[in-house]
Amino acid sequence: MVGDVVVGNVPYNPAAKSGKSWKNVAQFSGITRKVPSSYPTIQNAVDAASPGDLILISEGVYLEEVTVTTPSITIRGVDRNKVVIDGQFQRGNGIMVVAADGVVIENMTARNATLNGFYWTGVKGFRGSYLTAHNNGDYGIYAFDSRNGVIEHSYASGSPDSGIYIGQCYPCKAILYDVVSEHNGLGYSGTNSGGELYLISSIWKNNIVGVAPNTLDRELLPPERETTIIGNLIYNNNNPKAPIAALEYPSFGNGILIAGGISNTIRKNVVINHENNGIVILPNLDENFWISHNNVVRDNIVYNSGRADIALVGPMSTGNCFSGNEYRTELPAFLEKWNGCDSFLRLPMGGDLSMMLGALGLMVQASDGNFPSGNYKEQPIPGPQMNMPNGSAAPVRPALTAFEDFNLDLDKISLPEETEKILKSIPRKPSSSTGAITLVKPRSLFPFFYHWLGFLLPFAIYICWTSVSLFDLKDRIDLDRNKKLSWVAAITLIPILSSGIYLLGGGSKYPNWFKRTLVLGGLIVFFLLLVYTGISLMNGIGTKTIG
C-alpha cells in the first residue's frame, strides 16, 4: 500500500503532487466519461477526469478501491442496486474522496470493504445521494473533517462502528435527510461535530444505539455541539447480533444518546422500544470529563423504554431542558417538571448515577473482550433500494454549496412514511421500570457488580453509619444535651462524612475494631473498585466510550 502521511494542521493538495492544479467549478463541464465502455475501471475514469466532469458507471460489480483527488466531479451509477463496488473484504474503501471539494457520489452500492463504503475527508462541499453501503468494516457513509454537505436518500448497514458518521467539523453545515441506518454498532455517530448539522426525517433502527452525538479528546474540535435531531423514527436499537467493537458496547439499548454534547436540539422524534433509555443525556470520559449542557428535548414521542423514556445522567449538568414530550418514565423523578424549557429555574442540577455506573461496568467487561458481537461480514444483505429519479439523465451539479442548495426549512420537516405503521404495530406496554434500581442491560455480572458497589453501597453505608452513630449518641451519658444535638445536626445535615468522623474520632463507645471495620471497610471497597476500573480500562479499551 502506498500513500502520503500529513503531519499537523497544514493544507494538503494531492493533485498538486502529480503536477495538477485543479480549480473548483460549480457547473457541469459537459463531458461524460463512461465506465467500462470508455474506461475499464472507475479509477481510470476518475484519474482522467477534470473538474465538472461526470463519471457514468454502467451495471456491474467493480472489484476496486477508488481514490478521488479531483474536485467538482460527479460519480454516478446507472442503477443503484446493480452498480456495485465490492471490496471482497480485502480493500479498505469503496470510494474515498481526499481533499477534493464538491465531489458528488450517487446511485450506487459499496459493500465488503474492510474500512468504509463511501468516505469524504478534508473537503468543503460534498453530496451523497441514493447510496447503499453495507457490510463494511468500519463506517458505511463517512464524512470527516468536511463541511457543507448533504447525505440523502441513502442506506447503511452492517458496520461495526456507525452506519453514517459526520465528525470533526464546526460549523459542519451538513444535512442527513431520508436515510436508513440499521444493523450497525451505532446508527449515527458524530464525534466533535456540530454547528448547522441536521439529522432529519430519517430512520435509525436495529443498531446497538440509534443516534449518538459525542465528545472525545482523541479528535480535534471538541466538544460536540449544536446538532439538530428532528423528525426521525428511532426504534429497536437493542440488536445483540449487530457488529460492534468494545467501545460501542456500553451504549447498548438507547435511542438517542448525547454523550458530552452541548446545545443540541432533539425535537419531534418518535423513539420506541429501547432496553435502557429512549432519550438520554450523559457525560463522556476521555482525557477530559465532558459534561452535557444546554441540550433541548422537546415534543418527542417516547415509549417502551426499559429504564426511562427520558433520562439525565451524571453527577452534574446545567441548562438541559425537557418539555412537551409524550412519555411515561423519567430519571431522575420529576425531570421534565423541574427542568422545563420555559422555566428559569431548572432542577436538579445532577442526574441519575446508576446508568453511568452500569455503563462503566459494561465498559470494564468489554475491556477483556467479553461482549457479544456479530460479524460485519455476516450481517443481513439489504434488498433493492430506490433508484435516483431520472438516473443517468438527472442534472449534474457539483456539490460546492450542497448545504445551501438543499433549502432547508425546519417548519416543513415531517416524520418518515414508515412512522404510522410502526406506531400501530408496536403497542405501548405497561412500564416495568423500577427507576434507578433497574439494572443496565445487557444484564451480566459486571454491570450488576458496579450497580451494587458503586450505586447501592453508598446508600447502605449512609444508612448503616447514620443509624449506628445515632444509636450510640442516644445512650451516651458523657455528653451534655447541647453536644448531642450538635452531633445529631452534623450527622443529619452532612451525611456520611459527619457520621464517619463521629465513629472514628467522636468518642463512640463501640469497640475500636468494630468502628474501624465499619468505616474503613466501605472506603477500602471503593478504593479497590477504582483501582480495578483504572487498570482494566488502561489495559483494555482505554478511555473512549463511543465514537
UniProtKB/TrEMBL annotation:
<feature type="transmembrane region" description="Helical">
    <location>
        <begin position="485"/>
        <end position="505"/>
    </location>
</feature>
<keyword id="KW-1133">Transmembrane helix</keyword>
<dbReference type="InterPro" id="IPR006626">
    <property type="entry name" value="PbH1"/>
</dbReference>
<protein>
    <submittedName>
        <fullName>Periplasmic copper-binding protein NosD</fullName>
    </submittedName>
</protein>
<feature type="domain" description="Right handed beta helix">
    <location>
        <begin position="83"/>
        <end position="210"/>
    </location>
</feature>
<feature type="transmembrane region" description="Helical">
    <location>
        <begin position="449"/>
        <end position="473"/>
    </location>
</feature>
<keyword id="KW-0472">Membrane</keyword>
<keyword id="KW-0812">Transmembrane</keyword>
<dbReference type="InterPro" id="IPR012334">
    <property type="entry name" value="Pectin_lyas_fold"/>
</dbReference>
<dbReference type="Pfam" id="PF13229">
    <property type="entry name" value="Beta_helix"/>
</dbReference>
<feature type="transmembrane region" description="Helical">
    <location>
        <begin position="517"/>
        <end position="538"/>
    </location>
</feature>
<dbReference type="InterPro" id="IPR039448">
    <property type="entry name" value="Beta_helix"/>
</dbReference>
<dbReference type="InterPro" id="IPR011050">
    <property type="entry name" value="Pectin_lyase_fold/virulence"/>
</dbReference>
